[in-house]
């Protein structure tokens, strides 16, 4: 059973930074693509970023390019999302996701419960 547990969310002022972490268990972490989605109030879940099993080929939604960085530590079974220059429109629940293999689509098999990020203006 794959389990994903996010942490690191909170309240931050616009222009500030947060780093989200996702601790994974129950699978061979290093063989899974990992990613982050977010859901703002009243909106559908949206892709934020993904990273390949080896840590290469990070991909980002245009709305976060240049501000967010996804990374992973396969020795710690953890994926991170460093968020800089945060804007009020980044306010959302952020979800960690996983799928076996080097996956470039948007249909992930496993989801965490999410962590709230609130950016005040």
Your description of this structure?
- Helices cover 0% and strands 51% of the residues.
- By secondary structure, the chain is mainly beta.
- The mean pLDDT is 96.
Report the β-strand fraction as a percent range: over 45%
The number of helical elements comes to 0
Mean pLDDT: 96
| Cα-based radius of gyration, to the nearest Å | 13 Å
SSE class: mainly beta
The succession of helices and strands, N to C, reads: EEEEEEEEEEE
Estimate the global geometry from the Cα principal axes. globular
Unreliable parts: none
Tell me how many strands there are: 11
State the share of residues found in helices, binned by percent: under 10%
Layout of strands and helices, then pairs:
Layout: E1 3-7, E2 10-13, E3 18-25, E4 32-39, E5 46-51, E6 59-60, E7 68-73, E8 78-83, E9 92-100, E10 110-111, E11 115-120
Parallel strand pairs: 2-11
Antiparallel strand pairs: 1-3, 3-8, 4-5, 4-9, 5-6, 7-8, 9-10, 9-11
Descriptive labels:
mainly beta; 51% strand; 121 residues; 11 strands; globular
A few lines on this structure:
This protein has 121 residues and is mostly beta strands.
């Amino acid at each position: 059973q794959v389990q994903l547990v996010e942490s690191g969310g909170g309240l931050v002022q616009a222009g500030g930074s947060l780093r989200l972490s996702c601790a994974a268990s129950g699978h061979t972490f290093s063989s899974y693509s990992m990613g982050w989605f977010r859901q703002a109030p009243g909106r559908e879940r949206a892709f934020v970023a993904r990273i390949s099993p080896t840590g290469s080929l990070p991909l980002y939604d245009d709305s976060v390019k240049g501000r967010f960085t996804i990374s992973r530590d396969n020795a710690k079974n953890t994926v991170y999302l460093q968020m800089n220059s945060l804007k009020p429109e980044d306010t959302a629940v952020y979800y960690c996701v996983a799928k076996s293999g080097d996956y470039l689509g948007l249909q992930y098999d496993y989801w965490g419960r999410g962590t709230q990020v609130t950016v005040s203006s």
